[in-house]
Amino acid sequence: MSRNGDAAGGDGDSAPDNGAPKDSTPADTAGWPVELRGVTESVVATLGPNDLWNFAALGLHAPDEDQDDGVVTATTWGNTRTRRNFHRQEGGVVQFVSDPRDFVDAAMTIWEGETPVLDSADAWAEVEVEMVDSGDDGGTHWETWELRPTEAAVEATRPFTINRAFGAVVDATVAASRLDVPAFDTDELLSRLAYFEETVEACGGQAEREAFERIDEHTGWRELAAERRNESF
After folding, report:
1. At residue 13, what are phi and psi to the nearest 5 degrees?
2. 146 DSSP β-pair partners
C-alpha cells in the first residue's frame, strides 16, 4: 500500500512511554519484532499536538536482501497527520495488527486515542524516523523516511495462516483511498473493489466482512459504482 491514511485508537495497560501491556515479551531492541519482506503492511501511531495518538496504515519497505546494513523505509503521501507528526516528534510506534477492521479504520478514517498500541497488535516497535527523500508524483507530495526501532515487543504468537479475504481488504483500502485522486481511473478502481468484494464474500469470516463493509461506509463506493453504471445507459 503506497498511501497512508490518518487514524488512531487503542487502549490498555501500558508500559512507560509506549503503551504496551506489562506482560508483553521483549524483542531485540536493535531490530524489528517480526520478519519484514517486500512491503509489509502496518499501522503506525504518531503523537499529535493535541497529545492524542493518531493511527494510520503504513507500508514498510524492507531493504534488499543483499544489503547487510539496509534500513527499513516508508513513504508518506500528502500532508497527512503522520507526516506532520513525524516531523514534529521524529518517531512513532509501528504495530502489526491481526484485526482487519482496525486496519480499515486506520487506513480510511481519522481515529485518535490516548494510548499508542491497539489491542489487536500482535507485535509493536517504537521507532525513530528520519526523512531521506522527497518529491512530487501526480500533484501529490511524498516523503520517504528511514525507520529505526529503539524498543520492540511481541504481544501474541499464533500459527501462521493465509486468508485471501484479509489480503483483499488491504488491497481494497488502497483502491478506495485513490477514488478521489485525479491521477487514477475511477472505473478501474471501482472494478477492483467489486472483485475484492467477491473475494471477501467467498473467503472471509465475520471480521473481514465487517471490515469490508466499513470501506463502503467511509467512501460510499457502491453508490458511486451504481451512479456510473446508470450514466453509461
Report:
1. -65, 130
2. 73, 130
pTM, rounded to two decimals? 0.84
Q: CA-to-CA distance for 2 and 13, rounded, in angstroms?
A: 32
C-alpha cell at 50: 493535541
Domains annotated on the chain, with CATH: 39-154 (2.30.110.10), 164-228 (1.20.58)
Is there a contact between 71 and 124 (Cβ–Cβ < 8 Å)?
no
Q: How far apart, in whole angstroms, are the C-alpha atoms of residue 227 and residue 118?
A: 37
Residues 127-157 pLDDT 10s? 999 999 999 998 889 999 999 999 999 999 9
| CA–CA distance, 184 with 41 (Å, rounded to integer) | 22
Put residue 9 in one of left, alpha, beta given phi > 0 → left and psi -120 to 50 → alpha.
left
